[in-house]
Amino acid sequence: MTDETHPIVGLTDAALEATLKRAIRVTLVLGAIPAVILWIASGWRNAAMLAVGAAISAASILEWQRLIRLFNAKLDQKKTPRGAALVVSFFLLRLLVFAAVIYGSLICFRGSVIALLCGLALALVAIAWEALRLLRD
After folding, report:
1. DSSP output for 24-91
2. What is the distance in angstroms between the CA of the first residue and the CA of the last residue of the chain?
3. Least confident range of 71-75, 78-82, 123-127
4. Measured between alpha carbons, how far is 58 from 116 in angstroms, rounded to an integer?
5. DSSP characters over 13-26
6. Which of 14, 37, 62, 106 is most exposed, with minimal Cβ within 10 Å?
7. Model confidence over 22-46: pLDDT tens digits?
């Protein structure tokens, strides 16, 4: 066996930041293109549900990125970034806001729940894609 280091071990904070930014971009693209196709194929209601799910997914990755930045600062023994309490508060508040957005979209749009779930799953797909890219490099 060789003593090669795993690609994840050498991951810097800047590389993680770039990876999460790419994941946000992938989530938005994977949400926009199928939403347009779904709009043409089955109407605006299902497209709106998919778009809401994709927007929530992208916002979730953004919130995780802020939280990871806060944890990395603590682990590196750096000064806690300004607004650390605000980041944690928004992370918890995000759960309530997103629950309200999901409920509101289900009530207002009356589209497919499956489309909403597919949009919500896009964050997982984008993060898995980026993780596989890191492992491949």
Report:
1. HHHHHHHHHHHHHHHHHHH-HHHHHHHHHHHHHHHHHHHHHHHHHHHHHHHHTTPPPPTTHHHHHHHH
2. 19
3. 78-82
4. 14
5. HHHHHHHHHHHHHH
6. 14
7. 999 999 999 999 999 999 999 999 9
